[in-house]
Amino acid sequence: MKKTVGTLFSALLFFSLYAQPSEDLPGDFLGQSFHKERRQALREKLPPNSVAVFFANPIRNRSNDVDFVYHQDPNFYYLTGYKEPDAVLLIFKDKQTANNGNQYDEIIFVQPRNAQAEMWTGRRLGNLGVKETLGLNEAFNNTDFKKYNVDFSKFQAVLFTDFNNDVRDNPLDSADLYSLIEQFKQKVNYPSVGTINVSREARINNLNTRELAVIMGTLRGKKQPEELALIRKAVAISGMAQREVMKAIKPGMSEREIQGIHEYVFKKYEAEDVGYPSIVGAGHNGCILHYIENYKPNVRNTELILMDLGAEYHGYTADVTRTIPVSGKFSPEQKMIYELVLKAQEEAMKACKPGVTTQELSAITRRIVNKGLAELGIIKSENEQHLYYPHGCCHHIGLDVHDPVPQGRLEENMVITVEPGIYIPENAKCDKRWWGIAVRIEDDCLITKEGYELLSSSAPRTIDEIEALMKEPSPLDDFELPEIK
Ligand code: GLY
Ligand code: MN
Ligand code: MN
Predict the structure, then answer these.
(1) What tens digit of pLDDT does each residue of 236-245 get?
(2) Does domain 222-469 correspond to CATH entry 3.90.230.10?
(3) What CATH class has 18-219?
(4) Does the Cβ of 419 fall within 6 Å of ligand 1?
(5) Among 219, 303, 408, 441, which is least packed by CB within 10 angstroms?
(6) 132, 270, 290, 384: which one is catalytic?
């Protein structure tokens, strides 16, 4: 549908059409008190006499006049709950005084309401909606940012994340993200050549582009109860999808269809999106760690299929991988590799508790994998350098699938993946009976006071559990569609 209609909108239409009835929305979004409390937690971590500045994510163009579905910058979302583009947020360490004498320690500039734009591309909160819905009391239209006259030179530190110069200018909008960044640069005397990040300290005068990421990583690393509820849901949905696929998969299905079954289950449980492009790789495709083409038209019953998918539920993503035999039964070689990966994963999980590091967990899995590969004759000795396990075994999850890395060791209420893998491509320097076997097993673990809780336990992991579930009927067994020539 092309934009062909001009401005036809009366104020009456504007207000009646665009008010969002609350019954049309899920009732379990993060509430304004969560975001408010997180802003206060950030304020407490800011250095003396400083301000932190956040920009909304850019709109990304897909093709011609179609953009990618908008996704907010996770830091921006964490601190505000705001899901729209073209916005700036400032969080001050100390109270500021406005011209009218009002005191404030946070201020947001957001895209204004616009009847015509909203009819085409969706509702906007506008500054009044932001005050009411998100509880940010100092909320203005982004067109006011240019004349906002805080003297940034008075702060000991202005913290922000440096710009990547990859934001499109909409010349018709003087308050789009491009313009907001330009206006900010002028206000803070940002150097006219290059970026601050290239300086060793990521700091010029009072501008600091390094510290904010560290502070946000620390804040986001330890999940709040409200976040844990959403992560649990995202993970449970992803586990349920793995279960349904285990029952439904048949030789001859395409990788795309299998992806579709996962993603249908995600949507059935109202997950808005996937947290990252879905990875569904049969046979040697599983050796490509982030294989997202999913083009193979017929998966074969001699193959394993590696399925790494995560539902994103209200911004929070799961990251769960299961590797299963298309036929429903592991071959002896597949079984040996699978058991080795599972053992590595279980040993790492046993060590999951406050005080360890993800590097230590990775090292546990690597030792087991190397020893096992040597025993199977796939490598000559456990000290041989090889590429059969080319990645680490853990990362944090949350609003990002690879959430920012908090400083230090694991703590209670952090959520990490444990995901060892072995990938043996065609023509690898080992007996060819191992070729095309790729196994990753990935689970999501909540670090608890004493150890961990396995959040993804609903998705079967052992060979016996997987083979038993794959024998069960699926509601999709009778779902046939006519062939399209
Ligand atoms: N799904 C990406 C990863 O496992 O890190
Ligand atoms: Mn992962
Ligand atoms: Mn993954």
Answers:
(1) 999 999 999 9
(2) yes
(3) alpha beta
(4) yes
(5) 408
(6) 290
